[in-house]
Amino acid sequence: MNKVTNSGPLAAFTIFSRMRQAYLLFLEGSGAYCSAAVSEGDRLLSLEESDAPFVHTEQATLLIQAAVERAGTSLKALSAVVVSDGPGSYTSLRVSTSTAKGICYALQKPLIALPSLYTLAYGMQQLHPHCSDCLLAPMIDARRQDVYLAWYTHDLVLRRAPELATLRPALTEFAQDRPVLIGGSGEKKAVDLLGDAVQPTGIRASAGHMIAPGWQHFRQKRFAELATYAPRYITSPNITVPRKKL
After folding, report:
1. Which CATH superfamily is domain 117-200 in?
2. Tell me: the pLDDT tens digits for 142-168?
3. C-alpha span between 160 and 155 (Å, rounded)
């Protein structure tokens, strides 16, 4: 009787099939709105998004529960948890990171951290796949005329690292070279300031934009160090101290 060995094309197919069964949980909490998603491999199964701003503390776990249930799986069946790495709102990032790390600690799952502006840029690229000469300027609203901003080419090569930038000088520097697509929660401020010099996409941060990049990180085993991981806030929290009453 011939012995069947698990090698060659059959082995590759078996490994691929197992990888496709990897369920990933995604949590996007870098901005005003929180969202959670579940995928099987790179296939989106469910997506839940908050309909009110800055309710991460109240809704993050509820969104996760709803996304997991709608995907027809369970937290125990997850292969990894993927969280937005920042920059963004200090409080929002802290809540989403604590929630993701709590799940990882409780269930012994690896943690993957994705740059928030990169996943925004990925969503913009997917929405405008043929604008190959465009620059992508994903941005997250900060105080006054500032945004958290990064620059990418259309094929997602980083041109300038994420920074806290003042809108007008930051955008006009690049807008003279080629068309600029903008997206994220800072988009409206940019349009109000620069008008037709930039092209809005209407995209906001969402766990739905994290699926493909998160799956790639999982396949490459690019996991965060759970014990020491902290998001990339870029700036310290804006904490005010109340004045003493006279």
Report:
1. ATPase, nucleotide binding domain (3.30.420.40)
2. 988 899 999 999 999 999 999 999 988
3. 14
